[in-house]
Amino acid sequence: MDKPTDGEKDNRALDEEALRFHAEGRPGKISISPTKPLATQHDLSLAYSPGVAAPCLAIQRDKLMAYDYTAKGNLVAVISNGTAVLGLGNLGALASKPVMEGKAVLFKRFADIDGIDLEVDTEDVDEFINCVRFLGQSFGGINLEDIKAPECFIIEQRLREIMDIPVFHDDQHGTAIIVTAGLVNALHLTGRETADCRVVINGAGSAGIACAELIKIMGVAPDNVILCDTSGVIYQGREAGMNQWKSAHAVKTDLRDLDEAVAGADVFIGLSAKGAMTPEMVAAMADKPIIFALANPDPEITPEAIAAVRDDAIVATGRSDYPNQVNNVLGFPYIFRGALDVHASTINDAMKMAAAEAIAALAREDVPDEVAAAYAGTRLQYGSDYILPVPFDPRMISRIAPAVAKAAMDSGVAQKPIVDMDGYARELNGRLDPTATSLHLVFERALANPKRIVFAEGEEEKVIRAATQWRANGYGTPLLVGRPGHIAATMKAIGLGDIAPFEVHNSELSDDTERYVELLYSRRQRRGALLRDCQRWVNQDRNVFAACMVACGDADGMVTGLTRSYWGSLEKVLRVLDPEPGHRLFGLSMLLAHDKTVLIADTTVNETPSPEELADIAIQSAAKARALGHEPRVALLSYSTFGYPSAAKTARIREAVKLLDDRGVDFEYDGEMSADIALDADLQALFPFCRLSGPANVLIMPGLHAANIASKLVQKLGGGTVIGPLLMGLEKPVQIVELGATVSDVLNLAAFAAADSDR
């Protein structure tokens, strides 16, 4: 039996990690949370009986009132029968549930839409249609998913006819919209007229037929669109393997197979299978060909194979590891967002084209600094390698959703027109939690500029899993500190194969020990350490050894802390590394709440910061907020607010504010103030002299007690997620996770360490 390859081991590790991800904590990926308080008997009487009768009667009088009094206007049902799950085939309704939950998560992440997955256990078209139509009153829109052709055509068409809410089969129209957006820009770059270009589409399933329909609406002449399936060209008069949807795109032609069709064609759109297109076909295409090879996971032909034949092609695939990824997430969240916000009765062709044009237009604009930085190493400038925006471009929601909403209004399907479109776009910009984007940007930066990160606790299972994912995802090279035999045994026990792909450093036997001891002794000889102390620390303490690796440039950054207290780990790191000159050492925690992101400092280091330390921490925290894509609004917190009640213990906070005044910093700040006022714009309005223009997103705590307790309470009582604390102000990138950290926690801080290594 052949030994598994490194790629197979990486895939196996990813599968195992995915299973744990889905099972950890509360199983699955979605939950339902109340949006109204239920803390008192009065709250209960309003939410349920007797108060709930009032909205019921209002909706009976006018069904559109359901959008005002229920969640209907922000609720999309993701519905499947599991007959065409990903590329896995007919898995059945229940086995499709992880995919449908995932789609619901994407709706929430990218457009703040609440998605509810429904798995309908029938392959009978009429039964499926009846099930959806009778449940339809509950939702603002229906997203059909992973339903095989031709049933998907019948289901969508009939549901659109009988329902008064948007019904959208993303496998068809989502793909078509993104393909059309890319084609708009590719035609522009190659100087072609839309009406004159010749297009070959290989694959006559749901996506292929939808692409043919939409590019014709875009302006491609119908006779210039040749659709192919496994039997060859779909031509007028063909009888074998035909149906009414294929027949609608049959053309009068003498061409009979894909080879003949592609010869001289301007555009190839592949929605078929690996190997369907050959280098010979590529060579036979017109000058400056446009090739969308979208089969997954392996395209019809790879970009490398195309490049070996000619260098004038614009190439797109469905994969994230090549430029120009055709990814449906560029479309469906924002299409539904716009449709829901105007209470659209359907998603029509005008709305689809508006989405495609908005996506195309965005790719032609300058890329924001934070996105460009995240994709460093990739040319994010309008051209042959950038015809579509990247998925985590934060501008997507405020460009695509308004375009869709306007098209719905212009085409007469909007039941609630938006008057102020500029205000609507601004509202959308603030709707999503920007920290989720920031984290993705941090990881994308690591992917674009891979780093050598040393994982000090290399014998621990969680660390090994994190290192495996660091390597498998292409973030860089993981360096494990530990005994090879112990690491190998752990890897074998958890099914991750052998140790060969990893770089392991044993502190007791390392060839670098002497060099590290010399470095450490030069730093510690006048700070209470003898040579033999330094030798013992380097040989026996993994944190000291790992920190020496970073100090000597053998690693770009370091992660530790899983098995020891934060302070215990930090103390060992500080034997090797010092604070960066001119900076304060402190901990910065990121709190991700439902509708906001707040940075809290200092959560780890300074027990009772002086005014100077508070001012320095505020400045460094504001800089980090900007680096993560936030415009900082800094509040220096206390139990008092602007001098009331007056107390000697609050004087240092007021002094810190004065120091910021003297330094002329370039961000908003104010204090002292209580936490509720800092986070509530309405309460701030009671103090017209308050300098903050809105709720604070950076909280500078008066002391370590308050900061640490606050972050831990949020973490344990719910209502938010805490990332970090991030160790700030050290001369080299080191991050320390907390005891009991998850694999994701280790990966997150490894990514921050990698990002900090570029400073």
Could you walk me through the main structural features you see in this protein, from its secondary elements to its overall organization?
The protein has 31 helices and 21 strands. It is α/β, with parallel strands linked by helices. The chain folds into 5 domains: 41-172, Rossmann fold; 188-324, NAD(P)-binding Rossmann-like Domain (Rossmann fold, 3-Layer(aba) Sandwich); 327-432, NAD(P)-binding Rossmann-like Domain (Rossmann fold, 3-Layer(aba) Sandwich), CATH 3.40.50.720; 441-574, 3-Layer(aba) Sandwich (Rossmann fold); 586-729, Isocitrate/Isopropylmalate dehydrogenase-like (Rossmann fold), CATH 3.40.50.10750. A 6-stranded mixed β-sheet has the order 7-6-5-8-9-10. Helix 7 (151-162) links the parallel strand 3 (141-144) and strand 4 (167-169). The two termini are 48 Å apart. The model has no long low-confidence stretch (mean pLDDT 90).
